[in-house]
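Format notes (please read before filing issues)

Several people have asked whether sequences and structure tokens are stored in separate files. They are not. Every record keeps both together, in the order shown below: the sequence lines, then the token lines. Line labels are part of the format and must not be stripped during preprocessing.
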Amino acid sequence: MAHAEGGGYYVPEYSYWPFVASIGLLAMGTGAGGFLQGLDWGGYVLGLGTAIMLVVFFGWFGSVIREGLSGLYSDQVDISFRWGMIWFIFSEVMFFGAFFGALFYARLLSVPWLSGEDPATSKFLWDSVVLSWPTAGPGMTDLEFRPMGPWPLPTINTIILLTSGVTLTIAHHALKAGERGKLVAGMWATVALGTAFILLQGYEYYEAWTHLNLQLDTGIYGSTFFMLTGFHGAHVIMGTIMLVVITLRCMRGHFSADNHFGFEGVAWYWHFVDVVWLGLFIFVYIL
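Then the structure lines:
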């Protein structure tokens, strides 16, 4: 992927992709809300929005790839791409930070308050209730469920994700060294590990839902567990799709040792997903 001479910006032609993406996001948000409320049309609207966004991703990123391969981007545009990815990952950090904050607030503040550690406060909140984490919450004390422990599936998934970070790093070094065979092998290994993580998490959800009676409506513990692990799983799915696309581009020779930000951007994202999972594994499954 060559760069244009000079330091100016490439100004693309008018595009309809942002408008279509807005429609897709609106449909996804509306459909997800309806689905969680148990409305019949929620799943269909969510599916429609998801389909629209898939088309947008394929078309919009395809345009960017073609522009990059045509040598239309300068070094300054490359810097802009890097800063854009940095701010995107920062927004993801804040996104997960909000859910971790909800988990910490519930465990360290709400549960002790409601359990009477401060009698002057608890009697105004929920009188005579005794709670300990994990809990479904006041009024749900008769709900029997078992929390998800760290062994075996979460531990296996942790090993899988950490290994995928290693194979991706090996592929990156191979790209910079011009070893195409090693690059492609490392990328497909990373894709396989990401896919294995998704399948095992799906099986973990099945076990939690059917055998542990741990569901999304199992009070504060169930909601925080599924919100944190579910959104992380969604990020792993997106990251795996990105890895597949980058792997195919590697096979077609789209990157060089000196110019491969498309690869680096996906690698940054995948390593971020790994780090988030380590936090989840410690604070959700172990502590």
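For reference, the curators noted about this record: Helices lie at 17-36, 42-69, 75-114, 119-125, 153-177, 180-210, 219-251, 261-286. The chain is about 75% helix and 0% strand.
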